[in-house]
Amino acid sequence: MTRxxxxxxxxxxxxxxxxxxxxxxxxxxxxxAWAPAAFARATTPTAGTVRGxxxxxxxxxVDWDAxxxxxAAFAYVKATEGTSYISSQFTQQYEGSxxxxxxxxxxxxxxxxxxxxxxxxxxxxxxxxxxQPDGKTLPGVLDVEPSPSAPTCYGxxxxxxxxxxxxxxxxxxxxxxxxxxxxxxxxxxxxCTDNSAAFAATNLLWLGxxxxxxxxxxxxxxxxxxxxTADSGPLPGDQDxxxxxxxxxxxxxxxxxxxxxxAPPATAWPIVQPGYRGRQVVTLQHLLVAHGAHLETDGxxxxxxxxxxxxxxxxxxxxADGIVGPKTWQALLVTIKSGDKGPAVKALQTELKxxxxxxQVDGHFTSATRDAVIAFQRQHHLDPDGIVGPLTWLAxxx
Length: 398
What we know:
The protein is α/β, with parallel strands linked by helices and about 400 residues long. It has helices spanning about 20-25, 35-40, 65-70, 90-100, 115-125, 160-175, 185-195, 245-255, 280-290, 305-315, 325-330, 345-355, 365-380, 390-395, and strands at about 50-55, 70-80, 85, 105-110, 140-145, 180-185, 205-210, 225-230, 240. The chain has an eight-stranded mixed barrel with strand order 1-2-4-5-6-7-8-9, surrounded by five helices. A hairpin with a 3-residue loop joins β2 and β3 (about 85). The longest helix has 19 residues, at about 160-175. It starts with 20 loop residues before the first helix and ends with a helix. The relative contact order is 0.12. The model is unreliable at about 1-45 (pLDDT under 50).
């Protein structure tokens, strides 16, 4: 979300997962020739998407009539930050969006380095962040991500960060009867909560991702409610889409919760880069080892992993930027089948085990691994041949 620091100087939210527009636009060009039409389409919003926006004081006096005319159905408005900042434009923006018929809600930019989660939840609730079952008010949002004026992860260890978020969540729910939506991005969540899954079952997710795809999702969440797709576009402020129908959006406003549909299938390779942790990094590390890298497969995209990535990119005549995008993924892939063994098989087994398949990650492609591959392929409407080629890898890494 666009935020205005207390000092009054404009600052965009810093995203470890932010990808330049040129790369986003180029994703379609990087789709391999073997990909069918369903995989060639980008996951950007379509004409039938429920579109919206989020704004802060930086947007000042928003022309809400014009935004509604362009198809915006909902808006989130910044209300507070920490326990000392209240947006000077909140009332105009919050009431203005409701006046033109939008479903709207408020968000709070978290500052875990300033005060407790409970104190900030109370401050947010006391200055516009409350939810009420009136059919036009969305649940409040806890916006937790990097700030340029704060240390990495606000100086907190992952366990302390999880407790801070839980304190905010508990207080918000105690006073409204509903959990706040959590707005974050995958890289920050991975780094600063150590991939906590503590909120995935209770709190709706608002994902920030400018890569043209909502994948990968933060750990634990299998889908999302909102997706911030860009920080500029036809609507004022940041561009957002809702995962559901207009009726779902109105039910969310009326009830304070809803069940989001499954995330759309992954149609583009994920972006994985320094700071990430978790399953995708383990898979990446196994594939790098399969290509000769000497690397610990610990699931942490540290300097050592970045060096291995840049060395691989250089050897394959790719842009050696240390970021694993479509071209790097495709160069890393190894087609494997029954009887194969080695690090690439470990990468496969890691992916399947993460999805609940009781496999041993031993690097041997046995009949048990083949059966798990076939089950996965059927679940994802792929040819169930037991061979792990590009399409199966694409579904796996997402």
